[in-house]
Amino acid sequence: MNKVIITDHPLIQHKLTLMRMEETGSKDFRELLTEITMLMGYEVTKDLPLGEIEITTPVQKTTAKILKGKKLAIVPILRAGIGMVDGFVNLIPAAKVGHIGLYRDPVTCEPVEYYCKLPEDIGDREIFLVDPMLATGGSATAAIQLLKEKGANNIRMINLVAAPEGIEAVHAAYPEVDIYVAAVDEKLDDHKYIVPGLGDAGDRLFGTK
Ligand code: URA
Q: Which domain of life is it from (predicted)?
């Protein structure tokens, strides 16, 4: 309950510093995010259950370990979450990918769903919900609620950078969702950007600024 796992491997921290730098362009930003996602993926998948199967090597028959737990689904929150899909799919090619699109209503400031396409058997899958930035927690909690409405009950959230406010919001609503993060930053500013953060992750990924 209320678990936050900070993946502070030196390679992750070094690459995150490069991502934070304003002079880092979209190509490098994208590649760094994929590399960090793969490194975080090692930690996120550390407790996946293993079984054994009989195989034949070129030398002899043997038993060998194989993943045996629930099937996985990677679910990015659009649009910046897309930047974390390749890293996970490189590690777990059999995982299915769902997408959740949310925008913030300019009047109510509440997240509004505009797209949702999930694997049909989402309820039977272990879900990795990905979004580089966990700021207010509004999109994250809305995405988790949506996933639960569709039958999902096994969700972990993976972010690159989180604000304390976002972690608190997610865990106030869903204490059972473990949060994996490369860094917990200081706070949110008046525009709800993470400080010091790395700016708008979507704009930096897709060069839309
Ligand atoms: N989303 C971003 O992309 N950056 C922030 O700092 C906060 C939310």
A: Bacteria
